[in-house]
Input
Amino acid sequence: MMNNRDKLGYFELASKPILEIKEMFQVKADGFKEEEASQIRAEYGDNEIDYGTEKSLWRYIFEAYFTPFTLVLLSLALISFLTDYVFVEAAEREILGPIIIVVLIILSGTMSLIQTIRSNQSVEALESMVEVTSAVNREGQYQEIRTEDIVIGDLVRLKAGDMIPADIRLLNSKDLFVSQTSLTGESHPVEKRALDEIAEPTSETDYATLVFTGSEVVSGVGEGVVVRTGNNTLFGGIADAFANEPIKTSFDEGIEKTSLLLIRFMGLMAVIVILINGLTKGDWLQALLFGIS
Output
């Protein structure tokens, strides 16, 4: 269900008067009751960011067995099968080479699949052991609740060392400095002020009256109202943009470059060998088979 507060951009969230923000987000001095928070959570979802890392078992199997390098090996196995078994006399047929290559591909893919599954299980086990909480005003008192259970309109208290659990409009602050490295890459903390006057639109992270998911309180204290949660946060938008474009490691890039180099080299050498054999011996069929092998 869409309402006016859902349509607000970060400039409006940062520049509107505090009383108007409280009214729009139905902020209560004593905080929400658990029943009210549950209703809001049912409408907007849990305060969790989807990083797009969930994959099916078939996806893991495909990625394990069909890498650029294994595709090169499969090509070599096919060529070896054609030149050593299909296009030769029965007495000269040899199939051991293609079998060895296929077995190596299966062993390599299986090891990669097992390692991937084990690493994912380890990550899930670690995540289940770590529970991040925040000081939220619920039923008249501030209490530590799970970050995932925070809802829009909650009052959150911030202090040094806290991770910002959602996008928050500050209601009051004192010497509040926040590290926004995860958002901007800048190592120096920036000061956030609840009563700062916002004159014109700038970069979202420059708004002094807003703090964002993924940031960390370096010093000072503050209190604010949650205005965006989960994938609707600034950090969630960044994660969503990269969800379908996974970042490749330097190892992955190295494997791909090596595979492409091998493919180019094979293609070039095959053409050269075919031309030399065909021109010198005149038997183009034999030259083709020799060049491919």
